[in-house]
Amino acid sequence: MKRAPTGTFRSRMGAFFPGSHVVFRGKVLHRDLKDADWVELYAFGITGRRFTADETRLLHAIWAYTSYPDVRIWNNRVAGLGGSARSSGNLSVAAALAVSEASIYGRGIDVRAADFFVRTRLRIEGGASLIDCIRDELAARRSIAGYGRPVVSGDERIEPALALARSLGRADGPYLRLAHEVAETLEAGRWRLRMNYGAIAAALALDLGLSPTEYYYFMIPAFLAGMPPCHIESAERPAGTLFALACDDIRYAGVPARRWHRPSATKQEGTP
Question: What residue spans of the chain are helical by DSSP H?
């Protein structure tokens, strides 16, 4: 077997020089980025761009407004079950983040929402009508990411996000305007799909210059702040008691109880 070539590993992202310095996307971490906010640093690692204080504040809010410490939420439940099973906080939160990849509620819908806005804006600039873009999207995917909510029609996260965007002068970007136009068209038509936070967050991020792929990476920790509380509380309770149900609490309407008989000890192996 031919030996793989050896030599110096090269990276355009960064490198660690033990005892000397760390390069982070061409910047010296402890010199050029020493005053960077953590979210700003995280976004810089993804995009290679430096964000202003106001832009970073908006990026903070996109995460903060959707971090709920409710163990009933699907991904938080994994963190809570980890605590109930006495798994470590690190493993439990990592597992909860992993299931946040969900195509309906999590990162999958983020990518779809951002991609829909980018494609739709390009088509409209090319002469297509918004109503045709909406119909084509529904025909191809049977839904529009960022619109509709299975539990309730309203979304408590939208107004705080929009209020902050207005206060920062970020409420009139082309993608945010498009998000509202889609919402108005859907409400006026027979679809009756109301905008949810997925549309607002994606539009705000696109107006900050993130691509759909960059937005996906940025949103990976979006639910993170609500997860450790779920693990901590479950770990403080008796093990194995998260969502515990007594048998009497279950309404069962299936086959009634049956008696099971041990096979005769006199039967030989292979006897019919």
Answer: 29-32, 38-47, 53-64, 74-84, 89-99, 107-125, 130-141, 158-167, 174-188, 197-207, 212-219, 227-236
